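User: I'll paste a sequence; please echo it back and then give the predicted structure.

Assistant: Echoing your sequence first, then the prediction.
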Amino acid sequence: MKNHLDKRLTRTHNLLIDILEHIDERHLASKLLNLPSNTIGQQFWCIVGARNSYVKAARAGSWQGFECLLTEEQILKRDDIKKELDSSLESLIQFLNSNIKLDGAQEELLLDLLEHEVQHHGQLIRYMYGLKLGVPESWKKRYNLD
C-alpha cells in the first residue's frame, strides 16, 4: 500500500507543479467569474494544508485538526506555493518511507488525502477552462482534456 500511495501522491504533486508553472502568477488571485469561488491560490492553500494535516493525523493515528503553513500573502506567490508543496510532499514521503506498518486508520487517512488532492485537480481544471487559461500537456494527457 505504501508504494502505491507514494506513486499516486507523487503523480498528483507533479501535476500540481505543472499547473502552477503553467499559469501566470497574477492568476493566483483569480476567481471564477459570476460564481461563488475562492481563488486559485486558495486552492493550493487547501492542498498544502490538507497534506500537513493528514500526515499529522496519520502519525498520531487520528485527526488532529487542519493546519496550513501558507499565509494569505504567500498564496499569491508561485515560488512560495511551490516551496510548501515540495515540503509537504517530502514530509509525506518521509512518513511513507518510515519503518512503521500502516494500520487501517492510517491507510484511510492517506487515501482520504489522495482523494482530496484529486478533487482539487477537478476544481483546478474548472478554473483553467472558466478563466480560459488553457491546461498543461501533462493534464491533457492525464485527464484526456482538449
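The chain has a mean pLDDT of 94. The domain at 2-10+39-143 is CATH 1.20.120 (Four Helix Bundle (Hemerythrin (Met), subunit A)).
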